[in-house]
Write a structure and sequence with these properties.
The chain has 9 helices and 2 strands; from the N terminus they run E-H-H-H-H-H-H-H-H-E-H. It is mainly α. Strands 1-2 form a two-stranded antiparallel sheet. 28% of the residues are buried. The mean pLDDT is 85.
């Protein structure tokens, strides 16, 4: 018994073909949107690729770009099939390949759903990527004279000002690394010698942060050096004073930015998937309604259309049986080839 049977006459078939054709061109524009979203996301990631630990984060935008291109191609072909279905002579050339095309569309819809799921799940690996990337980037902040790293100071400063953040987890991350270049340190000064000698790694550590951590909206001048020394600043207590630097860590700020972007893209991909499922079902109705004409020579005769020719259970059983037969066929061929080799 067929699933979701609908009776058609010529008027209904024509209206169905026109509606699905119109929806297919909407789906083409959706494919362009999918491609654009992937491209935009890739550009946004590349802007701060130096602060990410690996290139795996580009997998998702590359997948979105690929899916967008495939969507444009599939929907363009689907629209052409719907247009040609109004002319029996033109539709005849599509008939032999239509079943394969519909199966490919179903597979594409499933892949679109996986892509949407990845958009929501990529936040987890991105969190670890940003944590490690920011940690390494902060270590190279002082290397303004080192080839390949001289841009890191500018990158981090711009990021902290743009996202209103400071450090990796918080501003205290800057206390644990040397972020001032050696060229700006007077190694004859006692304070410098004491600070360098006070830790195993021989680094110049201090309770200060780069100026890019400062909040320009603060009413008092920025206190970004000797932040834990109350006597160094007038009317200041670092335990109770509302610090005039950004309190939020940059990992959290970037994760919120990219996470929000991925959630929005994921929601749009789900909507595009629903549109793709709708046009695939519409094309299936067109194919089945034209295949079941009471009188194939009379285009005005009635017919029936369906989503599945059999029930879901029967369809699934048929698919499994075909897969088993293909597997057995492959094994028979392998055994016959082995027998031939033994005889030879």
């Amino acid at each position: 018994m067929a699933l979701m049977v609908v009776k058609f006459d010529l008027k209904k078939r024509v209206k169905l073909a026109q509606t699905v054709w119109f929806m297919y061109w909407f789906a083409v524009m959706a494919g362009v949107l999918l491609f654009s979203m992937g491209l935009f996301f890739k550009i946004e990631l590349r802007k701060r690729s130096e602060l990410m630990d690996n290139n795996e984060s580009h997998f998702l935008p590359n997948l979105l770009i690929l899916m967008g291109l495939i969507a444009c191609a599939i929907n363009g072909v689907g629209g052409k099939i719907c247009y040609d279905s109004l002319d029996p002579s033109k539709f005849a050339k599509w008939k032999p390949m239509l079943k394969t095309f519909l199966v490919f569309c179903v597979g594409f819809n499933a892949l679109l759903l996986v892509t949407a799921l990845l958009c929501f799940l990529m936040r987890i690996p991105l969190q670890f990527t940003l944590a490690e990337g920011l940690k390494n980037g902060m270590k190279y902040y002082k290397d303004t004279d080192t080839p390949g790293r001289c841009y890191m100071k500018r990158t981090l400063d711009l990021m902290q000002m743009e996202f209103r953040c400071c450090g990796n987890d918080n501003y205290r991350d800057w206390f644990e690394i040397q972020w001032v270049s050696n060229r700006y340190l007077d190694f004859t000064a006692k304070e410098v010698k004491d600070r360098i000698g006070s830790n195993v790694d021989g680094q110049y550590l201090m309770d200060g942060v780069p100026f890019s951590c400062c909040n320009p909206g603060s009413p008092r001048p920025c206190i970004q050096i000797q932040m834990t020394n109350n006597s160094a600043h007038y009317s200041y207590d670092h335990y109770t004073e509302e610090l005039n630097i950004w309190r939020r860590g940059c990992r959290d700020a970037l994760l919120s930015y990219y996470g929000g972007m991925m959630n929005t893209i994921g929601a749009l991909v789900v909507l595009i998937t629903m549109l793709e499922v709708a046009v695939t079902i519409g094309l299936q109705y067109i194919d089945s309604s034209l295949s079941t004409l009471v009188n194939p020579e009379d285009p005005e005769s009635e017919s029936e259309g369906w989503v599945l020719e059999k029930t879901v259970k029967e369809t699934f059983t048929d698919i499994m049986a075909k897969m088993k037969s293909l597997t057995k066929g492959g094994k028979v061929e392998e055994s016959s080839e082995a027998a031939v080799e033994t005889v030879s």
